[in-house]
Q: What sequence folds into this?
């Protein structure tokens, strides 16, 4: 018998389990909302989780999922009616425990350290008064020919999971090869046969088998009620396919390959080096005037671009990956706060770079917490204000050019402008003179400053402004911008604009004191040249007029402590946008646009220089620092 190391399959097990836990969470939310039609899906997912955990030897996880499966089976059979709130909360607690277990398994600690005995006992208590209903009454026998994917190695484990999926649907009366050989995986080829006694629809049986990972096909035919003692190949089975077998569609599972994240990052780094190398070859060819290189360089550029686009797409994930956690978050918070809240989500299919997806989840949680805690009013207050007692939170995502915009909108209290203005004045964040002319959009940005909060007392969840500075910091570290709009008494909207990818971006190259720097083009609104007489000092700071509006200026040489430039009559200005503000960044000259590969500083001491977000290698091999637009704003 071939010995298989289950550790080789730990990664796929963890990934599949996390996906199934999310499916179970979504289905439980639907069940709690009154959708009884999802109970079959809930039972199937719980059954799959149990089988996978048992196969991998995680007995504590298998025991908990087994107890959950028994409850769902009783609900499905109609012998147990769940109390919507109390029992749903228990099942969500079980789901939380499973999530912690899989997190511990990912860290290499196993599943035994998570306490689940109390949860299992509570699940069993639900079943103690339930009279077990008879099993399926079965008469018909179907032959199932199950084909595994050609690259499936753990054949015995997949066969075991197929048997587990079929156990609640009927009785497996025979297998070919015999069950012992089947479960050991010691059989030739990638196919095996099962004989199932069941009267359930073939589509239902087929769906259950195809739900098992690495199962490619499941063909079902009718046979006589009497099954031969030793069924073997299809030719030895008594009976022929029924007349309608020609209508049976052979479904195939889409082929996917799970790629290790580190390998994907390494591939992206290599593509970045390829882009840098291509730029250097182009520069050398131009400087040497070798016309014979023009055609192969064009071909190299085309291939490099195609590879770059492909790798970028491989790194993309739908934002629904983080949206999936929000229904549960809203459900728990609304119950804790005693509020009624409906959640609407749009644009789940919108894609972002994997790293952006990983980083943006926590800021989104902060924004949703603020909406529920300080935006949405309690039902009684909403009724008095003439609103429906159920508040609305809407989360949207959509692509806008080379960016993705994510917004969190609520129809709650909105932000009290006068209260924010008073807090800003009291805290010294705003001068009385500036308070006379500040717009709502500018004023609301104070909510994202560390230490600024309009909450009279900080709750366990959040104050309007508590944690919001962390949101702004995280968004800007990703090259994004954050804005807020609000109407007092009607609601608030926070918008986050993020770059689709962070690895290879288009940048504007500028010269400052003979050195070249890069500014991500996503943050550049425009470039212009202004005369010396167009630059005026106001309150100790430089400004200029741009289309009848005041544009604050920041001199790069002054900002970086360089020697003053010689007066040339005009100044090169890059208009950058961060959040709601536009700032004019004075540089020495414009070089042009170029695709750059971003190199992060990592854990070096350079990371403490807040003026730059990273570096890049130019076509001549020199290093250019990437200017952080948020740092430009701080200097204005």
A:
């Amino acid at each position: 018998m071939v010995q298989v190391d289950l550790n080789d399959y730990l990664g796929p097990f963890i990934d599949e389990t996390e996906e199934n836990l999310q499916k179970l969470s979504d289905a439980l939310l639907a069940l709690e909302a009154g959708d009884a039609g999802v109970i079959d899906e809930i039972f199937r997912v719980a059954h799959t989780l149990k089988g996978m955990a048992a196969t991998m030897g995680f007995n504590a996880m298998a025991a908990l999922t087994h107890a959950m499966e028994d409850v769902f089976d009783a609900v499905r059979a109609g012998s147990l009616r769940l109390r919507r709130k109390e029992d749903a909360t228990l099942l969500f607690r079980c789901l939380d425990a499973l999530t912690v277990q899989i997190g511990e398994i990912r860290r290499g600690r196993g599943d035994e350290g998570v306490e689940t005995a109390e949860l299992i006992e509570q699940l069993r208590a639900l079943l103690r008064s339930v009279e077990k209903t008879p099993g399926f009454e079965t008469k018909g026998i179907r032959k199932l020919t199950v084909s595994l994917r050609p690259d499936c190695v753990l054949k015995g484990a997949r066969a075991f999971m197929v048997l587990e999926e079929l156990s609640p649907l009927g009785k497996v009366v025979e297998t070919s090869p015999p069950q012992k050989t089947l479960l050991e995986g010691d059989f030739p080829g990638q196919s095996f046969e099962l004989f199932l006694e069941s009267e359930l629809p073939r589509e239902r049986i087929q769906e259950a088998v195809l739900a098992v990972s690495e199962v490619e096909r499941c063909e079902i035919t009718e046979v006589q009620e009497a099954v031969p003692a030793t069924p073997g190949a299809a030719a030895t089975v008594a009976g022929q396919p029924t007349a309608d077998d020609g209508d049976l569609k052979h479904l195939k599972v889409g082929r996917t390959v799970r790629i290790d994240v580190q390998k994907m990052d390494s591939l992206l780094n290599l593509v970045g080096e390829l882009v840098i190398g291509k730029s250097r070859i182009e520069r050398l060819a131009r400087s040497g005037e070798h016309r014979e290189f023009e055609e192969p360089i064009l071909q190299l550029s085309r291939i490099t671009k195609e590879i770059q686009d492909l790798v970028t797409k491989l790194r993309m994930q739908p934002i629904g990956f983080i949206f999936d956690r929000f229904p549960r978050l809203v459900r728990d918070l609304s119950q804790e706060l005693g509020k009624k809240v409906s959640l609407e989500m749009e644009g789940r299919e919108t894609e972002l770079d994997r790293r952006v997806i990983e980083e943006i989840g926590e800021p989104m949680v902060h924004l949703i917490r603020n909406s529920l805690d300080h935006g949405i009013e309690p039902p009684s207050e909403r009724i008095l204000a003439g609103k429906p007692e159920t508040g609305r939170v809407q989360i949207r995502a959509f692509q806008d050019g080379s960016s993705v915009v994510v917004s969190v909108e609520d129809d709650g209290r909105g932000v009290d402008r006068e209260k924010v203005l008073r807090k800003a004045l009291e805290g010294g964040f705003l001068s009385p003179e500036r308070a006379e002319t500040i717009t709502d959009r500018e004023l609301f940005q104070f909510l994202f400053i560390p230490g600024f909060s309009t909450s009279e007392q900080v709750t366990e969840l959040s104050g309007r402004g508590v944690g919001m500075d962390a949101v702004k910091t995280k968004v800007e570290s990703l090259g994004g911008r954050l804005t807020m709009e609000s109407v007092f008494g009607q609601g608030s909207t926070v918008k986050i604009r993020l770059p689709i990818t962070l690895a290879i971006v288009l940048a504007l190259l500028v010269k400052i004191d003979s050195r070249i720097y890069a500014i991500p083009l996503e943050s550049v609104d425009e470039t212009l040249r202004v005369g010396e007489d167009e630059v005026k000092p106001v309150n100790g700071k430089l400004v200029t007029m741009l289309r009848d509006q005041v544009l604050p200026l920041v001199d790069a040489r002054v900002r970086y402590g360089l020697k003053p430039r010689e007066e040339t009559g005009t100044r090169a200005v890059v208009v950058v946008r961060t959040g709601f503000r536009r700032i004019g960044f004075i540089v020495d000259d414009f070089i042009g646009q170029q695709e750059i590969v971003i190199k992060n500083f990592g854990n070096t001491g350079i990371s403490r220089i807040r003026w730059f977000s990273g570096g890049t290698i130019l076509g001549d091999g020199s290093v250019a620092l990437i200017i952080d637009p948020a740092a430009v704003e701080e200097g204005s």
